[in-house]
Write a structure and sequence with these properties.
Layout: H1 2-6, E1 13-18, E2 26-34, E3 39-46, H2 58-63, E4 70-75, E5 80-85, H3 86-90
Parallel strand pairs: 1-4
Antiparallel strand pairs: 1-2, 2-3, 4-5
Length: 109
Amino acid sequence: MSIKVLHDQPPGTFLIRFSQTSAGQFALAYVEYDARTGMVNTKHSLVKSEDISSNKKLPDFLREKSHLLTLRKYDFVNNAFENVGKDTALGHFYTKRKSPVPQNGYVGM
């Protein structure tokens, strides 16, 4: 299913799904360009339980993956998949980063 959904999508496009083999875990499918072969391939990766926890949510884990750029999201209203930028789709769910504490009234650079 994920190969069909990602067919003809540009590198960096990904989707999130429940793992079919590891109950309760998430799996990622993503499009990647292989510079060695010049081919564009669909890869699959299991999000391990140690990758996410109460301190690190799935959106924060995905935020760190620079090769994942565009979420292939299902639109239930239009009954179709659409591409949405990762930060646009998940930004609302990211843990807010703390601002640096000023030293003597000045923010360090």
